Amino acid sequence: MTLCDLHDDVFAPLEEALTRVHPALDMAEVARIVSVGNGVADVAGFTDLRADELLAFAGGVMGIASSIGTDRAGVVVLGASEGLRPGDPVRRTGRVADVPVGTGLLGRVVDALGRPLDGPASLEDEHRLPIERPAPPIMHRAPVQVPLQTGIKAVDAAIPVGRGQRELILGDRQTGKTAIAVDAILNQRDSGVVSIYCAIGQRASAVARVIRSLREGGAMERTIVVVASGEDAPGLQFVAPYAATSMAEHLMAQGRDVLIVYDDLTRHARAYRELSLLLRRPPGREAYPGDIFYIHSRLLERATQLREDHGGGSLTALPVVETQAQNIAAYIPTNLISITDGQIYLSPRLFEKGHLPAIDIGTSVSRVGGKVQLPAFRAVAGNLRLMYAQFEELETFARFGTQLDAETRRKLTRGLRVREVLKQREHDHIAVPEQIAGLLAATEGLFDDLAPDDVAAAEATVRRIVRDEAPEICAAIAGGDKLEDTDREALIRVMRTALPDAQAEAGDGDA
User: Fold this and answer.
1) Which of 142, 169, 325, 369 could form a disulfide with 307 if both were Cys (CB 3.0 to 4.6 A apart)?
2) Both 114 and 263 in a single domain?
3) 153 in the same domain as 288
């Protein structure tokens, strides 16, 4: 007698009898836990199970069906697994993993399943979408042409980001990666862009600081914060960015522009590696499973600019990744560099020297480039990267004490002043016309006679002068008009005339 015959002879009559007593009971909907690990569980007994289906454990803990075999399934537990025991029942929910979406989430702090962490459990205007969704097809996408201003001079001038772009932020620990991303969110106050900050594996204190910055900067009411902290289960850390992206896609489908920050995908990769090893998936290069590239590509491919006939919304992604010892050629950073449309690299060498933000312009790149810059910005900063790279080469050469000709000394002097202009304090957001005025003054030599330590004050004076003396030109620049030669000369003339007087007044005041 075969096992199938035994089932027909023994279990089939029992199932029929139970169904007559309890008509609502479906034997295929209930299974049992076979074994439990740290964040995963093996279950057996389901005869019909969908990939990524939500499963309910005892005590209200949820799980996602991940590795489905012929006789058992590996489940990623979305919560504490300490209370689960072999033999406990597991039930199907009949739906794939999903999260609430809608404008009612704006201003809220939620976990990876969309459950509020900051107050009332109810959410206004709630709909639900699966956390795993296909990326928009190519024919639904439009070119990236509209800039996303970050308010950071080094980014907007040399590494411009467009709405619908995927720009990676990478660097060693404590070099200011999160500060760049948070400043980009804070600068969207008047742009109409809504933001989502997704914290993956961060310390609760670090997330609290970000939320405080968003509240103090007046950005919280147009931001959703999705938190899967380092104390949460690895399953929650893994699903958090997908859940946050579904929330963003719902807003994008309504025609809105959305900015999403994943902070950071290094911890996301580690959470997935932990789950994969517990689910007995074979490791590959550097102990990561072979599909580690796919989990990030299917996430970031969802960022795009939609065509007008498909809503016209956009989703801009700023993923963050941590490097070790400045090794940007490591496995995970290399994967993400190849997936994204450019990278903003923060150098610990510049950070230690006090050049903040510590953006290495030579290593950073935006593959969309000047196509998304305002025309006035292109006219002033078009050759900034080349000029700055030449200056850094000359600066290295000059350290050898070689006799320098006058032209080389002039380039070094100009480059040092441009570097000082590109420095910027955290949360100090500068409007585009004022950024252009400062860069124009530096590149035209208005700061060449100043000591490097005096450039910051002079640049602040230039920004005030332009704002007060040339409001029409500022309005035209902000509106997307080209910087005509007459306007350029007028700005230089205003700055050249008013700057010495303003500096003299400041000197008298100090005296």
Assistant:
1) 142
2) yes
3) yes
- Containing domain of residue 132, as a range? 99-373
pLDDT digits (tens, 9 = 90+) for 140-189: 999 999 999 999 999 999 999 999 999 999 999 999 999 999 999 999 98
Active-site residue, from 173, 367, 409, 410? 367
| Residues of the chain by 3-state class (helix, strand, coil), percent to 5 | 45, 20, 35
- Of the candidates 89, 86, 45, the one whose C-alpha atom is nearest the C-alpha of residue 68 is 45
pLDDT, the chain, mean? 89
Q: Does the annotation count 367 as an active-site position?
A: yes
Within a domain: 3:
no
Pick the range with the lowest mean pLDDT from 10-24, 43-57, 143-157, 459-473.
Answer: 10-24
475-490 pLDDT per residue, tens: 999 888 988 889 999 9
Domain count, the chain: 3
- pLDDT value at 502 more than 60: no
- Based on the domain organization, do 116 and 156 belong to the same domain? yes
Distance CA 496, CA 489 (A): 10
Quick one: which of 314, 317, 313, 304 has its CA closest to 344? 317
What is the CB neighbour count within 10 angstroms for residue 262? 29
360 and 389 belong to one structural domain: no
Residues 239-254: what's their mean pLDDT?
A: 97
Identify the helix (H) or strand (E) that includes residue 230: none
Task: Clarify whether residues 318 and 448 are in a common domain.
Answer: no
| CB neighbourhood size of 69 (10 A) | 10
Residue 2 belongs to a domain: no
Do 32 and 166 lie in one domain? The reply is no
